[in-house]
Each structure stands twice: as C-alpha cells, then as structure tokens.
Description:
It is a single chain. By secondary structure, this protein is an alpha/beta fold. It folds into two domains: 17-86, no CATH class; 97-287, Vaccinia Virus protein VP39 (Rossmann fold). Helix content is 41%, strand content 18%. It contains eleven helices and ten strands. The protein has helices at residues 11-14, 18-37, 46-59, 65-74, 76-86, 97-106, 108-111, 128-139, 155-163, 171-180, 238-251, and strands at 117-122, 146-152, 165-167, 191-194, 197-200, 208-212, 224-229, 252-260, 275-279, 284-287. The chain has a seven-stranded mixed sheet with strand order 6-2-1-7-8-10-9. It has a three-stranded antiparallel sheet with strand order 3-5-4. Helix 3 (46-59) packs across helix 5 (76-86).
Amino acid sequence: MFTNNWEFGDPAFEDVSGSELETIEIELLLSGIHRMYGYDFRNYALPSLRRRIWHHVHAENVSTISALQDKVLHDRECFERFIYSISIPVTEMFRDPELFLAFRRKVVPLLRTYPYIRIWHAGCSTGEEVYSMAILLHEEGLYEKARIYATDMNNRSLQQAKEGVYEISKMKQYTKNYLEAGGTGSFSEYYTAKYNSVIFQPYLRKNIIFAEHNLATDTSFNEFNVILCRNVMIYFNDELRDHVHGLFHESLSRFGVLVLGAKESIHFTRYSDCYEPLDRVEKIYRKVK
C-alpha cells in the first residue's frame, strides 16, 4: 500500500505555496503544448511569459492556468489564439531610425560588393521592419539583387505581413521614422491609401519570402549575408538565447552581418569572439570566424 507522511493541515503539506503551484501549472502547460503542437516555450523568460499566460487566462474566461491547459490542448482554435497572445507583435516602420541610418552608412557599402544578397528577418512579426528594409534597399539600388526571408512562428502575424496592409493612422509616425532613418524619397510613394488603411506597393513584396519558422525548435535553412533579429531574444532565457545565437552563427556567411535589438548583445554568449562590432551602439556585428 502506498503511504506518505503528509496529512491535510500538516505544515509540510501547506508548504506548496501559490507561486510554486503556479510554476507547476505553467510547466505542465508548456510541456503539453510542446508535446501536442511542437511549439517550445519552455526556455522563454518566466516573468514575461507568466504575464502573457495570465492575460490569456482572462481572455479565455477561465480561472486557472490548468483550465487554460485543458482548453488549449482540446481546442485548436484556442491554441491559435494562445500562440498569438504569447507572441504579441510590437513593431513599426523604421523602428529605431538610428539603426536604419547606421545600416545605410555601415552595412550598405559592404552589400554593394556582393553579386547577390540574402537577408533574414528572424521574428518578423507583422512585417513593418521587413518593408522598411525593402524600401532602404530600393533607395540604395540594391533591391533587385536581394532576397529577403521574413520568418515568424505566429501565422496570423505572417498573414498580415504578406498582405502589407496597415492602419493609415500610423503613417504620420512612420513617415517621421523614415525621414530620420535617412529616407531619400517621399514615404507616401511607397503605399496606396484606401479608407482607413494603406497597402504597400507590390514591387516591395516581390523579393520577400514569408515563412513560418520557430527559433526554439527549427534549424538553419540557408546561408545569409545579413540576419536581423531585434527585440526577440529579450524574451528568452540564457539557454535558449545561446541556442539561437548558435543558429545565427551557423546561418551567417563569412563576414556576414548580425543586427540585434537595443537591449540585446552578442557579449556573454559563447559566440562573442566570433564577431567584431560595426556599430556598438546600434548592435551591428560582423562575423569574423
């Protein structure tokens, strides 16, 4: 017969605090999602993940994380909503204009020496930064020999990125960003306004390939001259961050360029000695070994 030394009311039984129970529920939820759907969030930073999970608990009108797990594992549509809420897209055209200005000045001269350019936007969200890059390359006379691979694990975000349709109310800010990023034309020439939305010109999409890719579980799929992954790894723990840096190192050509977000760095990873900075402030690095 199975026996244990715990009894209800025993202090040892009551040591399982609410925070510990919450952690157990989160671990079970993430393990179930990984086994059922193949999406691996187990190495995402816990504080940010916890907030997003509780947001989705309330959105699904359930009271516990365990109840959310039951719903996610038995309802594919609920799972799709969960994926979208966990990977909430936060982006804009020419986000951090100083980065794009530095890219024009320090990376574009290198790209001019290549007969063909492959660029990977990893974690492209709804595509605003992808179209920003297409515009930049167009203005620098490089777009015709470039191919941009835009990937994300969130299929709903990818669909919006493919359509290239955005709210017209955002164009004022996007125009300001474009000019501060060194734009050489009129930003309004790149889109057509219709009702409360704008759609970006078809020629900006012709050299872009949109595809699903999960940085936590998927492997390298090509060799690239430039990889941009901005403000994505801030949600990862050290183990997953190191894994993704390994993926990028494997995917970059010799002297390829890696662009990270403002709060991210190549330092304190096992690949730090493999790069030299092109711009320390804007987190632009060149692979040297």
